[in-house]
């Protein structure tokens, strides 16, 4: 379950897939972060086409804190699969996510309660495998320095946990990276100091990015 004390919108970090077996039926859960209902519908369509030979492709998505919440039993007995899958999304502590649970029938009827447990378990397992992340604002910057200062810059960025996203070696060294707002002034000041005021520190844009949440257990 996601840490509800984290500030910002919590969602899944990546796509994930898990499989569980219940009385010879295969339940394959696939979870993904989504930004809109259209993106969720696209994921559902992709999974249904890819696994068109499956007995059922049950889905649920939960967006914008539940402002948009949809599910489908996809031919299973009413209430036995879609809602239990959606409930796994509602109770995980995250939003903006979609899960599709594919079932290959194994020959043994599970009953409504058995189906509900299996679908919910597959959904929860897929969500946990995807991991959680929080949307945070990053500022993308361009730093231009001389070759003699480049090593100092790489050490500075590494110490601050800021990866170089693009580095161009031309007349000067141009580094593109993204950082949180609380790092901007420190990095800009350090660039001025190490270059005697000759280096460039230019803000390119701001964008929302996912930062993975680390399990503290």
Q: Domain count, please report it.
A: 2
Roughly what fraction of the amino acids lie in strands?
35-45%
Number of strands: 10
CATH superfamily of the largest domain: Impact, N-terminal domain
Structure description:
Helices cover about 35% and strands about 35% of the residues. By secondary structure, it is of the alpha+beta class. It folds into 2 domains: about 10-130, Impact, N-terminal domain (Ribosomal Protein S5, domain 2, 2-Layer Sandwich), CATH 3.30.230.30; about 135-210, Alpha-Beta Plaits, CATH 3.30.70.240. Strands 1, 7, 8, 9 and 10 form a 5-stranded antiparallel sheet that branches. The protein has a 5-stranded antiparallel sheet with strand order 2-3-6-4-5, with helices on both faces. Strand 2 (about 15-20) and strand 3 (about 25-35) form a beta hairpin. Helix 2 (about 80-90) packs parallel to helix 3. The radius of gyration is 23 Å and the shape is elongated.
Task: Quickly list its features.
217 residues; alpha+beta; Ribosomal Protein S5, domain 2; Alpha-Beta Plaits; 5-stranded antiparallel beta sheet; elongated
List the helices and strands and how they pair.
Blueprint: E1 10-12, E2 16-22, E3 25-33, H1 37-50, E4 56-63, E5 68-72, H2 82-90, E6 97-104, H3 111-130, E7 132-145, H4 147-159, E8 164-169, E9 173-179, H5 181-195, E10 200-212
Outline of the structure:
By secondary structure, this protein is of the alpha+beta class. It is built from five helices and ten strands; from the N terminus they run βββαββαβαβαββαβ. A hairpin with a 4-residue loop joins strand 4 and strand 5 (about 70).
């Amino acid at each position: 379950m996601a840490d509800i004390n984290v500030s910002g919108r919590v969602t899944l970090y990546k796509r994930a897939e898990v499989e569980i077996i219940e009385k010879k039926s295969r339940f394959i859960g696939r979870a993904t972060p989504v930004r809109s209902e259209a993106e969720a519908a696209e994921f559902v369509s992709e999974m249904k086409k890819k696994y068109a030979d499956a007995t059922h492709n049950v889905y649920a998505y939960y967006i914008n804190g539940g402002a948009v919440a949809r599910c489908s039993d996809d031919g299973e007995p009413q209430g036995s699969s879609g809602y239990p899958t959606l409930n796994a999304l509602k109770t995980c502590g995250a939003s903006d996510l979609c899960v599709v649970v594919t079932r290959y029938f194994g020959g043994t009827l599970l009953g409504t309660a058995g189906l509900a447990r299996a679908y919910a378990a597959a959904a929860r397992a897929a969500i946990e495998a995807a991991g959680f992340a929080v949307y945070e604002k990053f500022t993308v910057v361009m730093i231009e320095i001389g070759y003699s200062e480049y090593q100092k810059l790489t050490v500075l960025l590494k110490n601050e946990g800021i990866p170089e996203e693009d580095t161009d070696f031309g007349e000067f060294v141009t580094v593109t990276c993204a950082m949180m707002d609380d790092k901007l002034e420190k990095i800009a000041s350090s660039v001025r100091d190490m270059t005697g005021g000759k280096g460039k520190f230019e803000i390119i844009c701001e964008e929302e990015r996912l930062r993975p949440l680390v399990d503290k257990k």
